[in-house]
Amino acid sequence: MSSVPSLQGLPSEFDFYHEFKSSQVDCASGNGCSDEISQYQLAQKFPNSIDRDQVEHALAHIYNIYKNGDKKSLECTARHFFYYWIGDKLSNSNGGSGTFRAAMSVICRRIKDNYKPGGCELPCDDSGHVDRDIFNSRKKLFDFWYDGNIVQTLLEISGSEGTKICAKYIGEIDEAYEAVQTHCGTNGSDKYCTEFWNKNRNKINQALQGVNHGLQAAQKRTTEAAKATSAAVEEAVRNATTTSSISSILGTLAATTVPFFLYKYKLLPSWFGNNSNGRSRKKRSTARNRDTLTEDSSTFDSTDTSTIGPTDLAENSTVRSGVYTTPSTRQSTGRTNNAPGRPNIGYQNL
User: Fold this and answer.
1) Angle at CA 82, nearest 5°, toward 14 and 29?
2) Pick from 201, 199, 168, 200: which is nearest to 182 by CA?
3) 126: Cβ–Cβ under 8 A, 6 or more apart, which residues?
4) Which of 193, 231, 238, 349 is deepest in the core (most CB within 10 A)?
5) 304: confidence class by pLDDT, cuts 50, 70, 90
6) Residue ranges of the alpha helices (H) in the chain?
7) Does the predicted model carry a pTM greater than 0.70?
8) Compositional bias (Polar residues) spans (predicted)?
């Protein structure tokens, strides 16, 4: 059985993580960007100079677009994602767990302090309190808070394979929720737990319940659709005895799903050709040709959908428009990588 690919191309990736990764902007002289970069002590945290340059370009992007650009109201949101983006890079590095914990404590405080005083509620735990696993769980929950609406929309319009991909994603978020809840149950003094988790746990749980209910509805819908299609195919084949009835089958299936019929009975075209040939071979009976119908056991190849985004799951439907139409006070000028209607999220207003 092919493994289920991961859900990719969500708004958090499209609006922020991709922008950080692809930025080629340099820190402008005198705008504070270079001073902030020096506070991160990247040489000790990122031995690879390419990674250090990438972090600097990403911060320069924040200064250019958010701090000094047209999207100032979203700077705090961008800094939250910047924190998780750097942490994700560090968690995949070869440094020890102690190095990771100390580095994230310093970087978190510097990211927060370089925003206008008291304006960005990014909870920064003391050094040594955040290991890789719990950090990754926190990141998944924060991304989910930003992406949850579009996941709900995908569940409403996806077919069976898209539903499986969403199910895998939701399962990972459920696990992250349980991990953070367990951690805060035994480490209640952590600032993340006191400043964010205790205040917003119920809201996150409600959002998770929403997508889980959506998943159950999608699974029920796709199962019923598959049964209906299979029943229609089997009934049509059972009644097929002449060339005209074969044509009737194809017409009937067009109202359900012709591609499903063609892959399930892949030898049908040749059978149809033999029966409709003016010089038909009398030695070959219809019953014998019916016996040649064999089911194709292949159902899904993950290599064809290794990168699944909202458009792929929607089967050529416009997914983002269904999510980005919520009223928002965000400015729409400037670069258009962030679609309009994106909620201005941050820990302080979750």
Assistant:
1) 110
2) 201
3) 105, 190, 191
4) 193
5) very low
6) 11-12, 18-22, 33-39, 42-45, 49-62, 75-91, 97-113, 132-157, 160-186, 191-192, 198-238, 243-253, 258-264, 268-276, 286-291, 310-313, 320-323
7) no
8) 314-339
